[in-house]
Amino acid sequence: MASVFVLPFVLGALIARALRLEDLSTRISVVLFSIFASLAPFMFVMSQGHSWKSAIPLGIDLAGGTNLVYAIDSLAAEQQQKKEPGQSIPVAVIDKMVAAIAKRINPSGAEEVTVRRVGNDRIEIIIPGADPDLVEQKKRLITKLGSLEFGIVANDKDHQSTIEKAMRLSPTVNELRSGDRVIASWRDNAKDSVDQSDRQAVRQVQRTDPVTGETVDVYQYLIIHNLPEYTVTGKYLTHAAPGTDQSGGPAVNFRFNARGAALFGTLTQNNLPDTTEQFHRHLAILLDGKVYSAPRINSRISDSGTIEGNFRMEEVEELVGVLNAGALEVPLKQTPISEFTISPLLGVDVQEKGIVAILASSIIVFAFVIIYYRTAGVIAALSLVLNLLLVVGAMAFISATFTLPGLAGLVLTIGMAVDSNVLIYERMREEFARGASFRMAIQNGFDKAFAAIIDSNVTSLITAVILYLIGTDLIRGFAVSLFIGLSMSLFSVLYFGHLAFDILERKRWVKKLTMMQFIGETKIDFLKSQGWAFALSGAVILAGFAALFARGASNMDIDMSGGTMATLEFVNKQTIDDIRSRLEQAFPNGVSIERLTVGGEDQKAGTRYRIRATIDRKEMIAGINTAFADSEHAVVRVSLDDIAISQLGELKDDSARFSGGSEAKVKLNGGISAETFLAYVSDSLENNPTSSTKYSSGSSLLQVKGVTEVPKASDAPVDPKIRIPAKYSELIVQATPEVTSQDLESSLKLVQERLSTEPLLDEVNSFDTSVANETKWSAFYAVTASLIMIIVYMWFRFEKVYFGIAAVSALAHDVLVTLGAIALGAYLSKTPIGPLLMLEDFKINMNQIACLLTIVGYSLNDTIVIFDRIREIKGKNPNITYNMINLAVNQTLSRTLLTAFTTFLVVVVLYIAGGEGIHGFAFSMLIGVITGCYSTVYIANPVLLWLVNREAAAKSVPQRAGVKLGKTGVA
Questions:
Q1: Helix/strand/coil (H, E, C) string of 310-348?
Q2: Residues near 16 by beta carbon (within 8 Å), at least 6 away in sequence
Q3: Are 485 and 387 in contact (CB under 8 A)?
Q4: Amino acid 231: pLDDT
Q5: Residues 6 or more apart in contact with residue 405 via CB below 8 angstroms
Q6: 597 has pLDDT over 80
Q7: Is the pLDDT of residue 354 over 60?
Q8: Spatial contact of 184 and 224, defined as CB atoms under 8 Å apart
Q9: What's the rounded Cα separation, in Å, for the pair 918 and 407?
Q10: Whole-model pTM?
Q11: How far apart are CA 426 and CA 373, in angstroms?
């Protein structure tokens, strides 16, 4: 703490004293404090022994992982009387479902999984770093029941002989059998202690902790098992909630369906208390084979009842979570309405390309401003470095997630931050031309540029706020980085930049600023060309709209139309034309495709492609199988090549419960994680039509161990918090004796058949039509709200509404031109010119909406600068004239072209090196920078003049027929 809050001010005072500028001590200290505060999050994680990179939380698009959104079944909620018809599902009900789902997919609480409520009827799950195949396992856990089971804890009154036999078992053997049937088993207690009252059977065994390697003590209860057909499991449970016992203490209320009520009634009836001896039997509640609670049975319980046990409220809430992990409050729809999945390999590739784009654009911008502005350019470059440091530090401090669009926002911040420096330096140039001293030029340069800088940044901040309010997680990452970047640029340019100039001037280190000047004083009549400018703009907009209408629904990406996007890899290199022709045959309703280049891929045989179509995932997989059925176009799959079944003898430690069961050694032609293979086998075992027995919880009867690990596809560093599971080409599957070897073998053959028909998908993104429609409306509201807010702000700042209307006219022009360019670029991508210009089948999606709003903010900056100069030139003159507008445009032309050029350089780097994920975004920004510069001069100003003249005409007295309008405004 002292290094952040004390050291900067001590150093600031020392530096000011050394410079003999004691009055600048506070300003120097504030700058140092901002630097130290920005570095603090990184220094903290390094002091904990972690890499500085772990201070930067990465979004799933940069680290790999999945974002899932599930819809709650509203009809089922009404049938279960969880909500009234026509009303929303109560927040309390959704919150309980969130807790239950979190318990299912993250029972230990150690994984960085986010489960949260979205809106009135949806639940979002974010799983960072997970491979797509592991995600499938999590999806099954989300919508399926857990392995919840109820049993009776053995006691020496009813089960003395059974306990004696079980006590003679080796500590590595957990099951007591009578023939083929398990009559009792030792089950681990989920807590560190056990309740040994009422003469319950408990034992203590020693285990080796798989993480630390230390020997630990584990307590076990002996559980008496019913026949399988009479076993009470979680599939019968419909609800559990906190309640109170007869004395008013915390307890657990629960409810079964009809079948569960009958079974549970029998179980509890047979184990009522013995009133003569005041003896109570205990009910064991097991989740995934472990005992989570063992309360007393006080009375017969059928369809609903109360679990009492002198609980604390925290214990009740935990037990409710355990019970509800086996049954959700209200069912979820089985298929997620939105899914975004990307493998860690592609995520690392995106990271690398984003970092390259940031570094390259930074170097280019630094070099340009230093060459063009010399000494002032060095200060500008230092301001940009400070700006980047402050942005990254602030995002790390608030744990804001870095996403791919967020990296784009960071890159754009570099280009847009130059704008403020250019405004100040061009003002300084004007002051020097008037003969001002160095000190006065600095002061006036900052003072006169201040209003334009504030106005342009505030309007851009408005769009960032709107983006945050309506955007997805990824778009919010962009909005946050843009908002923080713009805010920090004000500090770095206005505060630090001014301080640096003051030190240079007062120490006499620099007595005169020399700058290059590509554009001198101009006297161009820009308004004279408004006729052909409107004609040109009209033609471009009409051409773009013709392309948009001709393209129809193909303009929209899946987040706006519904559908699925998948990334797959081919065994052999393929040409995009060949792939496209085959996919168009398999998907007659339309498909789009783009080539992906992953780092190091040129040294591999496979080639990756991203496919989009307005169909669901199952149809996508079926179409891929149809299109690429031949060996020449083989898609990378993981196939199960060999299965060898054998019987197990006596096992020890954690595998003891599999003693006497079956074992299968399997070999694959690729890699798959043990968790995913367990999910596949478990699912097949439960749904195997040829099984001799119906298995309700395959995952509790199986375990999978990896044997031969497949080398990781990339050695690039990733966030150490993110777990990337190891993948194996050889695995061992072990089954408990309850599973026959024949059932295990037939289930593995079902897995073999499934893998042969499923291509490996590195990336999956799917949207339900209802979500797509909401996204479209959100985009419409965002753009509309931005334009309205800009009109209101401009009205407030310039005191006339026509300034806002003129600015929005230019912004609407930019939006329409960019939308048309997206459609035209998609058409040209299929022509020989497409590869030359790196064009693709661009789509309108939320990233593009974020880009359009960024263009709005960027273009508005230019317009505000000119309007601010018009206001300055006008002074107290009540009229705005033709000549005033032309003069303002000429006086700010150098600044307009310079900022457009520097931003253009940044966006070109983003377009070339930023990677496929933001390629469409960068293309639209390129168009936006060009059209924004053009519309500022040739659209906004003529519209402003037209509105001014209309207002003047409306105010004229009708009898004054001699009044006419000319080039000089009101005559």
A1: CCCHHHHHHHHHHHHCCCCCCCECCCCCEEEEECHHHHH
A2: 22, 23, 24, 25, 28
A3: yes
A4: 84
A5: 474, 475, 477, 478, 847, 850, 918, 921
A6: no
A7: yes
A8: yes
A9: 9
A10: 0.71
A11: 10
